[in-house]
Amino acid sequence: MNTDIITSVLVGLAILVGCLGIIVPVLPGSILIGIAVLIWAIIIGGPTAWIIFAIVAVLVAAGMSSSLVLTGRKLKTLQVPNSSVLLGGVLAIIGFFVIPVLGLPIGFVLGLFLAEYGRLKDAKTAWNSSWESIKAIGLGAGIELGLALLASITYGIGLLIHFFG
Q: What is d(CA 11, CA 130) in angstroms, rounded to the nearest whole number?
């Protein structure tokens, strides 16, 4: 095996972890995809590798920024403070270790609801606010994941061109 093949396989694995990281926030997400393809472009070299990296970088940046902007705008409209989302995130991480895999979403929902209940002092209003927040965060993550998958396909095309083109 030569360096190109080993690098390509490791970068592919990093991209997989990056895609999973968008869904499971404990892992690194889009940024890992961008860094991995940058390393691939440096090692492989040549115009094709750099063009592939540029496309991947644009897709990853668009995914990250659209996720942040759309989610942030919706949460601001709902008047959900960052502290509520932060508590949800902390309980999600705790939940991930207490109840493997399922604890992540359970912990996030519970943490978000508890923070909103503490802020709003009404269970129904807190649940409605939490549910709208979850939908907004899900939409942002879905868009980011979609663009990360397009970046993954772009990398795959780059591999095809490099090895067979």
A: 37
Q: Is pLDDT of 1 > 70? A: no
Nearest to 71 by CA among 90, 95, 88: 88
How confident is the model over 90-145, as pLDDT tens digits?
A: 999 899 899 987 898 999 999 999 999 999 999 999 999 999 999 999 999 999 99
Q: How many CB atoms lie within 10 A of CB 77?
A: 10
> Rounded to an integer, what distance in angstroms lies between the CA atom of residue 85 and that of residue 62?
22
Residue among 35, 72, 66, 40 nearest 147 (CA): 66
Q: Where are the domains of the chain?
A: 3-164
What's the 3-state SS for 89-134?
A: HHHHHHHHHHCCCCHHHHHHHHHHHHHHHHHHCCHHHHHHHHHHHH
Is the predicted pLDDT of residue 159 greater than 70, yes or no?
yes
Give CA–CA dist 109/103, Å, rounded. Answer: 10
Q: How big is the CA angle at 53 (ends 43 and 11), to the nearest 5 degrees?
A: 55
Instruction: Identify the CA nearest to 131 among candidates 74, 91, 90.
Output: 74
